[in-house]
Amino acid sequence: MRIDKYLKNARVIKRRTIAKEACDQGRVFVNGKEAKPGTEVSVGDEIEIVFGTKPMKIKVEKLTEHVMKDDAKEMYTIL
């Protein structure tokens, strides 16, 4: 699954366009490497997102196309 779509489905970032912009600005890293919006993520990958000065690190637990709001938290673990 694409990183921009994953961040939107997991509700880490509210909209896919904002997730795409964060990738384009170099604020998203997958396994320590800078991610483009089309970077593929898989279960077990570590994603780091820099919001302002505060970085957030998560681990991918599940990949799901359609997620209910309550189930979105099960898609990742905060490290």
Overview in brief:
With 79 residues, the protein is an alpha+beta fold. It has helices at residues 3-9, 16-24, and strands at 28-30, 33-34, 46-51, 54-60, 76-78. It has a single domain (3-78), classed as Roll (Structural Genomics Hypothetical 15.5 Kd Protein In mrcA-pckA Intergenic Region, Chain A).
Please provide a written account of the structure:
- With 79 residues, the protein is α+β, with helices and mostly antiparallel strands.
- The chain has two helices and five strands; from the N terminus they run ααβββββ.
- A five-stranded antiparallel sheet has the order 2-1-3-4-5, with no helix packed on it.
- Helix 1 crosses helix 2.
- The longest helix has 9 residues.
- The protein is globular.
Structural class by SSE content? alpha+beta
How much of the sequence lies in strands comes to 25-35%
Quaternary structure type: single chain
CATH architecture: Roll
**Order of strands in the sheet with most strands:** 2-1-3-4-5
Number of domains: 1
CATH class: Alpha Beta
Query: Which regions are unreliable across 5 or more consecutive residues at pLDDT < 50?
Result: none
